[in-house]
Amino acid sequence: MSTVRVAAIQMVSGSDVRANESAIFRLVERASDAGATYIQLPEYSTYWGPRSGYDAAATTLQDGFIRQLGLEAKGRGVTVHLGSVLEPAPDGRFYNTSVVIGPSGDVVAVYRKIHLFDAQPPGGVTYLESEYFTPGEEMRVLDVGEMRVGLSICFDVRFAELYRALALAGANVLAVPAAFSALTGPSHWEVLLRARAIENHAFVIAAAQAGTTSEGLATHGHSMVVDPWGVVLAEAGGLGEEVLIVDLDVNDVNERRRQIDVLGLRRPEVYAHHVDE
Length: 277
Prior knowledge:
By secondary structure, the protein is α/β, with parallel strands linked by helices. It contains seven helices and 16 strands. Helix 1 (17-33) runs parallel beside helix 3 (64-76).
């Protein structure tokens, strides 16, 4: 079967870790009951709050919550992509880490966010993720049934070269769990997701955070699934929890790449040269 039923779960996480974890179990059950076998959660799914709470919220890959989620995945025979969690880094900071749990209940892939959000978007707000986070150093692609999923997180979506490398490594689905800023989201979110899909002729699954926390952290929402032609197959609203359920035919990727061979027609031998002035 080339058709896979997937779920992109939109959350309204906050600084209450236990409440977030309860919501994750409830929403994973809802997605599984709807027939999804790959279930993606957003960035910062277990904690979305101020720096003062990072130490208490941080988790290792052997943490009890991840083991419990593994039992849930095994019992339901699904793959759960825990969009991202705070993981302690050796330098005293944290990794922003995606954890993928397979139907066996085991962690089958780990991806640590490569590109950190150091930016000054409109509105006088400055974000410096590098102050608290250590960047990852490895790309990751994994097999989930008929899908070959390339992993990324939020701000990564602005770096097209990452997704081209994932596609060249065989990815036919690009995962973009996010807590995308409400300031930049209206102008950039959909455009970037559709661009990544079109330029690689790959599906894009982007589960996002929505709404504004009690501490004033505002996210764009609009979780989305995009097909290899850039068509938005499903989109959530901008405020509350939602579970998007979509059937993906992975053969569509091969068909679109056959029609316009964006990978085979590349000229890397030219790109390696300096640009003439």
